[in-house]
Every structure is written in C-alpha cells, then in structure tokens.
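Re: the request from the purification team.
They wanted to know what the chain is likely to look like in 3D before they choose a buffer screen. I agreed to run a prediction and write the result into the notebook, where they can find it.
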Amino acid sequence: MDYSFTPMEDHHREAVTAILNHHIATGFAAYPSQPLPPHFWDYLRRMAQGYPAYVVELDGEVVGYGMLRPHLPPDTLKRTAEIGYFLLPQHCGQGLGARLLELLTAEAKAMGVDNLLANVSSKNQGSRRFHLAHGFSEVGRFKRVGRKWDQDFDLIWFQKFI
C-alpha cells in the first residue's frame, strides 16, 4: 500500500478527531471516556504549535496521525518533547508507527530536541511493546491515576534520547 505523510492542516480536523474518538470508544490508547467535541481540534493544534504534526493518508483518506508537542513551557526544557500517534487498527502492523516515529524524530533533532517522552496507559500493551521495541525506556509510572469503564489504569512514562 502506498501511504503518504502530509503535514497536518485544518482540513484534517474531522478525520483526526474521528480517529481519536475511535480510540476513545474502543480501548485505553486514548484516555477520555467520552467522544471529543469538534472544538477539541483547536486545543490539539495549539498544543502542537511550532512542532511537527502529520497525518498518514492512503488514497486520500486519513488513517492516522502523529505529532510532537512541548513537554513543559519553560525555555530550559525546550530540548524535550512529547510524542503521540494514533492509527486506525486496520493500518497497524504495517510499519506506519515506526515511519511516523522516524519522521518526527528527524524533525525533533532539526529543531534541537534530543529527548522524547511518551505516556502510555498500562492497559495498552501494544503501545508499551511498540515503544520498548523502538528504543524507549520505561522511566516512571503513576499508579492508578486513571479510571475508564470502571477499570483503574497507570500512566507509564517512556523516554528516548535521540
């Protein structure tokens, strides 16, 4: 399949929100328990302002996205960014996550970021395996900080020096 990676723009609003809402409804990859409203897009774009964000497309259809954002606002922490990505399930296992990670890592390096962080639900075994397989190390865990569908979950923090 011929996937393309395109910078995220406002016309991707509905597709990106739909992907995120799919993950909200079907598992622990996304933390909210209720679908996000359309205006969440504005928050997402502000969060990633000045950082790379891409959609993954197949035949003009958005099937995933990935982005960087600052970890915290102080200028002394500019070397650190948080990374996040979501793919529709039927497009997982085809190397797209690795390609997004590679693309975002290259852009992170170009902007002076040398430290990537990712947070993952303890209920999301696939994402845990992905991060460990791609050079991230587990560096911390906040126990029972989340509760979704009457199930407690931990937030696990992963770090990768690039």
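For the purification team: The chain has one domain: 3-161.
Please add any questions underneath this entry.
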